[in-house]
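To the wet lab folks,

You asked to see what we're planning to order before we commit. Fair enough. Below is the target structure as tokens, and below that is the sequence we designed to fit it. If anything looks off to you, flag it before the synthesis order goes out.
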């Protein structure tokens, strides 16, 4: 009990210090962003803001996180944490440069792979996961020689997934905070002190930046913040979640990070289906679709917060109560969320339904008009020879 009380006290201190530092450093970073020209100017339809806004806010998140980690964790004696933090520094430097002067996508991708290889070489590796095939006799998958490439793919994928959902004020920051809170709760439940402290620092850093990032945002965290948050969530999920309980190691990280994973997968499938490059930016992400439904930015962000929280709570229940209860809990929360959506957004849902019905009707009218045009063309073509024959007889 004494150990648990000490752990909880340390977790609270790590969270508070990261929060305070992140909050205090944001105005300083904002001034720096103006000086170096790290300004997000709205120049296309994908951007939701209408005035130039400084980015680089992720630098404040990084500072708050790092100071808290150095104060409350034994970095010198933890080889894996050293690798994670070294890779994080590379990710942040890449993000800072990219926020000041945009870099080529391929160059960023290569640097991200290098950053992912560093913790992998320090032992942060996915060795075993639970078998997603429930009918198989073997409950586990031993990754073998695939462990390193799978680990690198996981880190790079989650790093970019969080970056891709950073399209509305406070969205990526809030979703990351919810995901980190879920990992923190699970770590406390299974007494993983190192993971708990790291996640507490991340939650605090995100919350400290939140007042500047909520709609209307005074500052964006930019690629610096989004890629850093994704990287930390990815690496700590390997260090912690994939090693808590092998039987649920496959499901828990995917539940916690479900929203960015789904949005990224959906974006890639959509772009490939339309013959576009998977890396080509567009305005078809989940948050864009909610805005197009008629929701305001605040409503869209709140909706995605709820979805992320539902997935996170389901992961906690899965960890503590097993698969069946987690499934029942997840379904129940989905039903509650659907009912709440009808209560909170009745006007928006009704308008969206009417718009869809109008589109269907318009499509039907266009189809009927097209068929009538084709019929008229056929009848005209069939009458034309007769007219020519009469002219010939005359």
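Sequence we intend to order:
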């Amino acid at each position: 009990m004494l150990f648990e009380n000490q752990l909880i006290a340390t977790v609270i201190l790590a969270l508070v210090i990261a929060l305070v530092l992140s909050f205090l450093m944001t105005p300083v970073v904002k001034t720096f962003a103006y000086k170096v020209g790290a300004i997000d100017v709205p120049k296309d339809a994908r951007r939701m803001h209408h005035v130039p806004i400084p980015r680089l806010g992720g630098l404040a998140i990084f500072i708050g996180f790092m100071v808290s980690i150095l104060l409350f964790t034994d970095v010198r004696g933890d080889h894996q944490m050293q690798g994670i933090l070294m890779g994080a520094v590379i990710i942040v430097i890449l993000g800072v440069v990219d926020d000041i002067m945009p870099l080529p996508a391929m160059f960023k991708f290569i640097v991200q792979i290098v950053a992912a290889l560093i913790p992998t070489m320090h032992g942060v590796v996915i060795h075993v996961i639970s078998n997603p095939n429930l009918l198989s006799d073997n409950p586990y998958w031993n990754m073998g020689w695939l462990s390193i490439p799978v680990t690198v793919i996981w880190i790079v994928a989650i790093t970019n997934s969080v970056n891709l959902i950073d399209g509305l004020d406070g969205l990526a920051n809030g979703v990351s905070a919810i995901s980190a809170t879920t990992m923190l709760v699970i770590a406390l439940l299974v007494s993983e002190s190192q993971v708990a402290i790291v996640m507490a620092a991340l939650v605090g850093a995100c919350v400290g930046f939140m007042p500047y990032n909520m709609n209307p945002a005074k500052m964006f965290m930019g690629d610096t913040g989004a890629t850093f948050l994704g990287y930390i969530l990815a690496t700590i999920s390997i260090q912690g979640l994939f090693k808590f309980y092998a039987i649920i190691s496959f499901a828990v990280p995917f539940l916690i990070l479900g929203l960015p994973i789904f949005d990224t997968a959906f974006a890639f499938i959509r772009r490939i289906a339309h013959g576009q490059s998977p890396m080509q930016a567009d305005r078809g992400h989940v948050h864009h679709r909610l805005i197009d439904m008629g929701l305001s930015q605040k409503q869209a962000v709140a909706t995605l917060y709820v979805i992320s929280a539902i997935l996170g709570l389901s992961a906690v229940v899965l960890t503590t109560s097993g698969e069946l209860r987690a499934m029942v809990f997840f379904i129940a929360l989905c039903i509650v969320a659907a009912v709440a959506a009808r209560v909170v957004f009745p006007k928006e849902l009704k308008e969206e339904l009417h718009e869809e019905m109008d589109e269907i009707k318009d499509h039907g009218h266009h189809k009927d008009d097209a068929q009538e045009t084709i019929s008229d063309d056929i009848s005209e073509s069939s009458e034309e020879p007769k007219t020519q024959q009469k002219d010939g007889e005359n």
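Structural context that might help your review: The chain has a mean pLDDT of 77. The chain is about 75% helix and 5% strand.

Thanks,
Computational group
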